[in-house]
Specification:
Layout: H1 3-13, H2 24-31, E1 34-35, H3 39-47, H4 55-63, E2 67-73, E3 76-81, H5 85-99, H6 101-106, H7 111-125, E4 131-132, H8 133-142, H9 151-161, E5 165-167, E6 176-179, H10 180-183, H11 192-207, H12 212-219, H13 223-233, E7 238-242, E8 245-249, E9 262-265, H14 270-273, H15 287-290, E10 301-304, E11 307-316, E12 320-327, H16 333-350, E13 353-357
Parallel strand pairs: 12-13
Antiparallel strand pairs: 1-3, 2-3, 4-6, 5-6, 7-8, 9-10, 10-11, 11-12
Helix pairs in contact: 3-4, 11-13, 12-13
């Protein structure tokens, strides 16, 4: 197998070049979890995997509780399918909660403060209510619980990881919070090795070819647990070797021809963030351009034939969207034609007329 073939398989398995899913929940379920701290970008990550769909289709899936935004892994927001939310939180968050104990001590968030916060927020949200972050902070302050110095967001994160709350529907560009048991009354229950096996199977099917180290990074699991999950699922996966590394992937894929494609991916798309080793898709000389200042904020990328070849940004107007591209090198006419097509796709997704400049 060559690098080009590996990249073609990743694009195919991530449903970027192959589009079998018809609904947002099918996309998210296939991917298992999709990084989502950038709300608008995360919705486009779902949308670009369903060409022809619109942002309103993603909004509808959130409103009907088919997908939910919460903190299942690495302390980072992800979209997950409603049926997966509890087993993912149960499997992955205990290690996060343990790892952030020191920070909670610094913020003086002991068990008494967290339990009081839980009681106050639960009472306020009961009966299907939704509250914006600013309202949650004000509620905490009104009950003698300081939300300053990042205490408020740590309380929210902790309660989400404890399966008490999750995100609801965005309101006025702010997230809202709901009681998870009211928002998603029931979901799949998996534990122990069965949960590890399911997580490994879903990851390697959707993100493969990927290595065990990629899976460890993505999931946040201990390497021993990640290896147990992979070993349990390995009979249902294909194994290949490239550059002295072992990669695992979904065996169900057709022969892939030459790669001729271009995509406008949001900054935190799983194609970039789903792996610990990004050198296969991104030349090291351009790495600092993707995360300027090394501040953790990933820029939207132009992916051509599986590799990152530039950046893009958008400017929204009432009925138009202007897309400006910043290629790392020369863009051929054929590549530019493909990029223009993707810009039109993005315009359709937003229900706006798209224009492109560089």
């Amino acid at each position: 197998m060559t690098i080009d073939e590996l990249l073609r398989l990743r694009l195919y398995n991530q449903q970027i070049s192959h589009h079998p899913s018809e609904t947002p929940e099918q996309v998210v379920s296939w991917m298992c979890a999709m990084q989502a701290q950038d709300y608008a970008g995360a919705k486009w990550s779902i949308g670009l995997r369903m060409p022809g769909k619109k942002e309103t289709d993603i909004d509808d899936a959130i409103a009907k509780k088919a997908i939910v935004r919460t903190w299942p892994m690495r302390g980072t927001l992800h979209f997950v399918a409603a049926d997966d939310v509890r087993w993912l939180l149960k499997l992955l968050t205990p290690r996060i909660i343990s790892g952030t104990a020191g920070r909670r001590r610094q913020l003086e968030l002991d068990e008494n403060a967290l339990n009081k916060s839980r009681d106050v927020i639960t009472r306020a949200l009961e009966g299907g209510k939704q509250m914006m972050r600013s309202e949650v902070y004000a509620l905490l302050e009104a009950n003698g619980i300081s939300a300053g110095e990042q205490r408020g967001i740590h309380i929210i994160n902790h309660l989400a990881q404890k399966q008490v709350i999750s995100h609801g529907i965005h309101n006025d560009k702010q997230p809202t919070y709901v009681l998870l048991d009211e928002w998603i009354p029931s979901s799949k229950n998996l534990e122990g090795e069965a949960a590890l096996s399911e997580l490994a199977l879903r990851y390697f099917r959707s993100h493969g070819p990927a290595t065990l180290n990629d899976f460890v990074w993505w999931s946040g699991l201990r390497i021993s647990d990640a290896r147990l999950g992979l070993n349990s699922a390995s009979d249902l996966l294909e194994k290949i070797e490239l550059n002295d590394k072992i990669f695992w992937l979904n065996p169900d894929h057709p022969p892939l021809g030459e790669l001729e494609s271009a995509y406008l991916l949001p900054g935190f798309d799983e194609y970039m963030l789903g792996y610990t080793d990004r050198t296969l898709i991104l030349d090291t000389q351009h790495a600092s351009k993707i995360v300027p200042g090394n501040n953790g904020m990933f820029m939207p990328t132009i992916v051509v034939n599986g590799k990152v070849e530039g950046l893009w940004k958008k400017a929204l107007k009432r009925d138009q969207i202007s897309i400006e591209i910043f290629p790392f090198g020369k863009i051929t006419n054929a590549k530019m034609k493909a990029i223009i097509s993707r810009a039109k796709d993005y315009g359709h997704y937003l229900d706006k007329i798209a224009t492109l400049s560089n």
